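Here's what a typical entry looks like (Argininosuccinate lyase):
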Amino acid sequence: MTDKLWGGRFAEDITQDVLDYTLTVDVDERLVFADLWQSVAHVLMLGARKIVPAEAARDLLGALLRLRDQSENGRLRLRPELEDVHFNIEQQVIEDLGREVGGHLQTARSRNDQVSTDARMYLRRVQLDAVEANLELIGELLGFPEEELLAILPGYTHGQAAQPISVAFWKTAHASLLLRDVRRLRGAFDRTDESPLGACALAGTSFPLDRQVTARLLGFRAVLSHALDATSARDYLIESASAFAIGGNNLSRMAEEIVVWSGHEHSLVEVQDAYATGSSIMPQKKNPVVAELARGRAGRTAGTLVQLLTMAKGVTLGYSCDLQEDKPYLWHAIDAYLSTLRIVAGQTRGLRFDGARGEELCWDNFSTATELANHLTAGGLAFREAHHVSGALVSALIRRGATLRDTAASAEILAGLGHPVPEPVLARIFAPRTAVTGYTSPGGTSPRSVTAVRAELRAAVTAYGAWLEGTRRRLQRAHDAAFGAARDVADGADLGKALDRIAPDLPTLYGDLS
Ligand code: ARG
């Protein structure tokens, strides 16, 4: 027999290299808070259902509270030889109380329901942090100064100048898409927020568990009822990775625009000095390294999604060790995503757009040719006809080496084409500002439309902010209630009474899986 917690049937211990290959203590550091909270909830339930004797429950809670104090003081060290956080905590409880009492902790619980419970609890925090970081970035984007409503940028399709837009229009576009990332994170949160605890190894148990009370003590809004599903499921985690990957991709696309537009050829935007670095050899360089890395780090979030899908695809229902590969890369993806969101918010605050430069480019790059077609259409010509006339003008101007700035040349060419337009009219409709001001359709680039969209987006930010705050409060209340009851019981209070006292602080559960 070995002295491992599982050692009863073993004649010899695992070798050091097997231990090194299989342990998860390093990635489990992030789960310590969840494993302790979960263990407290589990013991309160075991005591309430008289699955363990009242005195044992009291002592177990005392030992768990001591471990929590140690953890908060930075003195809880996970020992690698104990493989993972679950065995570490159980072993330390046993070392504290002796096997006769400490050995009750793992009654009617398996590391299989335990690990998924921990991971869901950690992931909930991260999802909420990501919602908060997104809302902050969105706030930066929506906080543009009023003059950016008419600061001009060339809008691109196919990487070619298309139509003029405003800086505010560009910023609200990114805010709009990031808000969808927030929605996606919230959806992932809802499906993460279900308790697998009490599923045990895979098949449930003959002990009379109360899975609802542990779910509520952990702040969950639902019990993930089916034991085999609860221990096997990793879709909640893949879905989160997917939300992180999509979010990372979105940030990467914005970063690409900043990198390209801050180059000399565009000179449309400049990042604040603090977000750029210089070259070791070329004194003139100002490299937008934060934007470059925000673009590059999307490789980590995307890679993690592929890793998780690949890892999970062949795992039959019921826990297999493949599933412990769900954490290391996900942790990296989380770190990459959260740090990118936060630094991009800071970078956004310091971006300086050059609207005059944008306007100049739009005069030169024929961005307002559509406006001539629209003008002729308003005069009664079919749009397709007008498109041809306008295209013929562009072609003739290019042949002459001229642009839409040359209104005299344009007027002459148009007269020749049989569609005369007075020069002052051309000067007005070709002006990038006229186009931007005129695109008043809902969702368009006009100041009026952008202001309306900003109001909608701000209302959504407020609503998600309220949801975020309410959800964090719910988790915190359940946490404080569970540890408060544990403290009372450890100090000698009656367990049933302690649970009754905290009942109002625990969330109610959704009645069904809707
Ligand atoms: N450390 C494991 C993991 O990260 C915990 C579950 C292990 N369960 C087991 N039966 N080996 O997934």
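The longest helix spans residues 447-490.

More examples are in the samples folder.
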